[in-house]
Amino acid sequence: MTHVDLLSSTPARNRIPLARVRLDDLAPFDGATTRAYASAVDAIAESLTHHGAAVVELPAADAAIVRCGLESARAFFRARPGLYVYRAGRALDDGELSPACMVDAFRCLGKAARAALCAIARNLRLRSYAFSHLLDDNPLPPNEVSTSELLVSFSHGHLQSGQAPTVSIRSSMPEVDRGFVTLVASDHPGIEVCNPNGHWYLADGASGPNDLLLLTGRALSHVTAGLRLNSQYRITNNENRASLMFRLMPRANAILDCSPISAAGHCIPQIYQPISANQFMDGSRAEEHIVSHHSEAPSESQGNFVSEPSLRSVLSDPFSGAFLEDAMVLSCGHSFGGLMLKKVLEMARCSICNGEVDAASLYPNLALRAVATVVKMEDDRRLFHNAALRKRRKEVTEHMDVERRNRSSKESSEAGLDCESSRTFKGVQYPFMVGERVLIMGNKRTPDKFVGKEAVITSQCLNGWYLVKAVDSGESIRLQYRSLKKAGEPQMQVQVQAQEQPEMRSQQALAFLQNKQ
Fold first, then answer.
1. Each residue's pLDDT tens digit, 434-464
2. CA distance 276 to 252
3. Most exposed residue of 86, 202, 294, 365, measured as fewest CB within 10 angstroms of its CB?
4. 11-25, 236-250, 281-295: which is most confident
5. How large is the C-alpha radius of gyration of the chain?
6. Single pTM value for the model
7. Beta strands at 20-22 and 54-57: parallel, antiparallel or unpaired
């Protein structure tokens, strides 16, 4: 089956005639604008808006270089299918081989990608080179590797003896490139693109050997504040197909912002904030990683997975966040409301399709207003329910806190009583104060010369012991509180105890001698 036969076998309903623009007409030049350049800029912008892709026709010399690159891919991957990533300025490792014609193919496709980016900027009423400061220097400085890349791939077909390769169409996950624009050259069709209506079509079914398929990426969508949406595509033919895919990427230290778009008078939604190219690329890789993991899970709609915006974001103004209860329909069919509608009327152009806006042709979008009102009422009801639920939770939490504080205070009071009782018990051990006069009652270990004498407490020791000093002799002795009495107590009891103690000692000594005999 030849290339022409393959094109004719493609269903007509899956093929959309994309705008075909000659690179010679699209490339920027010095001097006044020509009619061919203006027509090429408008055609490529309209095709990207309505179909998500466009076709760039190369001149004969550049087309020969691209065909040489495709043949080199076939020869390089003759033994087995594979993928090779070429970056200008990168030195080859020891033993590493590269397909032929990569330097010329990179230069040719890079020139076409930059021309397409300039045309997109011109259509948005920007300077042609408005985004050139975000790209690598042209040409590259010495010892610097380009961030843009050229992907060279080839996949074998299942050949039978004496038969031509047959094409087996199998779906793959949708992809969105991270760069500004992507140019694809292939020797067999096999790329489907999703248009803004969500329908997939074969984008390169009518492409010739001199044509490049133009797709837009995430970086372009970010720096244009969503005015130029990224292209979603998927590869449906992976058999006996060689392809060159050039990705025009921002340089590593660039800051992706919407300052050129804002200077031109376009509206900038809040979601498009300045971000470094490295951080933006890392976030895009994370999204691709999530999508790739999603593709591993079995699902009936696996081949048609497309991330959709939330209902609230569609029904609300991107500037104020208010619901579109005053939505108006423009002549181009797009609807706006709130601050966004005022901005569109000031610019006299639609911020989505860049079409001209006539204030007299506006009419209310009653269906969108009704839906926005219903969603707002549901949102308010949910917010009221959540507020009541939060209030109930707060009351329960406060009640539990009060009970916890009461329980803690009760435990603290009980602990205080225990502490007070312990202090009272300890007070019994120290019934006397320093400097107080006491009488020495003594015990069996107290010397007789101190018993019955009056003394003064000089210091307080541990465990109820005191250091006392006799008043008459001035000698000091260490006694426990049980051996002391206050000086004001009756003396009769003291004298009786003083008389009983020697008698008890004599009796104890007599008993000891008898036991010894």
1. 888 898 888 888 888 888 889 998 888 887 8
2. 8
3. 294
4. 236-250
5. 47
6. 0.56
7. parallel
- With H, G, I as helix, E, B as strand and everything else as coil, classify residue 216: strand
Q: Which amino acid is at 73?
A: A
Spatial neighbors of 322 by CB under 8 A, at least 6 apart, are 316, 338
Q: Is the pLDDT of residue 348 over 70?
A: yes
Closest CA to 244 of 116, 99, 132, 137: 99
Task: Report the range of poorest mean pLDDT among 5-19, 22-36, 411-425, 454-468.
Answer: 5-19
CA–CA distance, 374 with 377 (Å, rounded to integer): 5
Single out the residue of 428, 325, 299 nearest to residue 380, CA to CA: 325
Cα(204)–Cα(208) distance, integer angstroms: 8
pLDDT at residue number 4: 35
DSSP secondary structure string, 256-291? E--HHHHHTT----TT---EEHHHHHHHHHHHHHHH
> What angle is formed at CA 278 by the lines to CA 277 and CA 280, rounded to 5 degrees?
60
At 378, is the secondary structure helix, strand, or coil? Answer: helix
Alpha-carbon span 483 to 493, nearest angstrom: 13
pLDDT at position 182 is 95
Query: Cβ distance 344 to 267 under 8 Å?
Result: yes
Helix segments in 325-365, DSSP class H: 338-347
Q: Which residue has the higher pLDDT, 414 or 249?
A: 249
Instruction: Give me the DSSP letters along 77-99.
Output: TSSS-EEEEE-TTPPPPTT----
Cα 234 → chain centroid:
26
Angle 431-433-434 from CA coordinates, rounded to 5°: 145
Strand, helix or coil for residue 389 = helix
Q: Which pLDDT tens digit goes with each residue over 462-480?
A: 878 888 998 888 888 888 8
